[in-house]
UniProtKB/TrEMBL annotation:
This is Response regulator. Keywords: Phosphoprotein. It comes from the Bacteria. PROSITE patterns: RESPONSE_REGULATORY (PS50110). InterPro entries: CheY-like_superfamily (IPR011006), Sig_transdc_resp-reg_receiver (IPR001789). The modification 4-aspartylphosphate is found at D56. The keyword Phosphoprotein applies. Residues 6-116 form the Response regulatory domain. Transmembrane segments: none annotated. GO terms for biological process: phosphorelay signal transduction system.
C-alpha cells in the first residue's frame, strides 16, 4: 500500500497551524510539522521525504526564503501562505504560487491539489 502524500506545513501562528493541519489531515494527507522556524523546517526537509509544502513566508520576522531554496533544490512543489502582497516577495520567487491568509478551507484544498499535481507523474518525493 502506498504511503499517504506528505505535506510540510511551515507556520509560526499556532491557531493557523492547527487549523491547516486539520484540513490537510482531512484530505488523507500526512502533515510534516507544523514547523515554526526556518531551522525546524530545513531540518524536516533534510530528514523526511516531502511531496509538497505550504510555507508561511514570514516566520516571526524572519523571511522563509532559505526554506524555499531547500525545496527548490529538492524539486519539491510548494506554495507561500502569506499576508504579504506579491510585490513584497523577492522577484526570484515570482512563479511560486501564493495564497493570502487566512486561507479558507476550500481554497486550501484546491491549492494543495494544485501543488501536488505539479509534480510530474512517477517523480518521487525528495529525500535527504
Amino acid at each position: 500500500m502506498e504511503r499517504p502524500k506528505r505535506i510540510l506545513l511551515v507556520e509560526d501562528e499556532f491557531l493557523v497551524a492547527a487549523e491547516m493541519c486539520e484540513e490537510v489531515g482531512d484530505l488523507g494527507l500526512e502533515v510534516v510539522g507544523p514547523c515554526g522556524s526556518v531551522e525546524e523546517a530545513v531540518a524536516a526537509i533534510r530528514s523526511t521525504p516531502i511531496d509538497a509544502a505550504l510555507v508561511d513566508i514570514n516566520l516571526g520576522g524572519i523571511w522563509a526564503y532559505p526554506i524555499a531554496d531547500e525545496l527548490i533544490a529538492r524539486d519539491v512543489p510548494f506554495a507561500f501562505t502569506t499576508g504579504y502582497d506579491r510585490a513584497s516577495i523577492q522577484d526570484r520567487y515570482a512563479e511560486v504560487p501564493r495564497i493570502s491568509k487566512p486561507v479558507p478551507a476550500r481554497v486550501l484544498r484546491s491549492l494543495i491539489q494544485t501543488i501536488l499535481e505539479s509534480r510530474p507523474a512517477g517523480r518521487k518525493a525528495a529525500t535527504s
